[in-house]
Amino acid sequence: MGILDHFSELCSLPSDHRRSKKHKQFQTVEMKVRIDCEGCERKVRKALKGMKGISTVEIEPKLNKVTVTGYVDPKKVIQRVRWRTGKMAEPWPYVPYDVVPHPYAPGAYDKKAPPGYVRDVMDDPRLAPIARASSMEERYSTAFSDENPRSCTIM
């Protein structure tokens, strides 16, 4: 073993100190983008076509919904659509109507929501108290339920 080999061992780093690159997870990114015509649809598709990591792009013009799947960062996808198209893009704010525990609360849900969807207000701190039913409301609504006819003697 020569002197150069000895110094190279002293100067080299062990293998566990090397930088490890984080791999992105495969995920689905849903966003709301206003799509008026086929030209808008092509513009959004073209903006996403060159992005690294994207597997598929699905566009539903009637719902103004764009679904992207692949090894991507959701914030970067939304930012790219905004920057390349000049259109307002935001994360998909709606959930299916069946998923919401207390489906109707005046003032909480968006009237512009597509059919069968309501705005997801459980994460919004301003609107969450409006959308959630109080324990008193739940008690009265279940007392006169068709699913439990023997719960109330008045009927």
Automatic annotation (TrEMBL):
Keywords assigned by UniProt, alphabetized: Metal-binding
Superkingdom classification of source: Eukaryota
Pfam families: HMA
Domain HMA intervals: 26-89
Family annotation (InterPro entries): HMA_dom (IPR006121), HMA_dom_sf (IPR036163)
GO function terms (MF aspect): metal ion binding
Protein name: Heavy metal-associated isoprenylated plant protein 27
Species, as recorded: Elaeis guineensis var. tenera (Oil palm)
Gene: LOC105044027
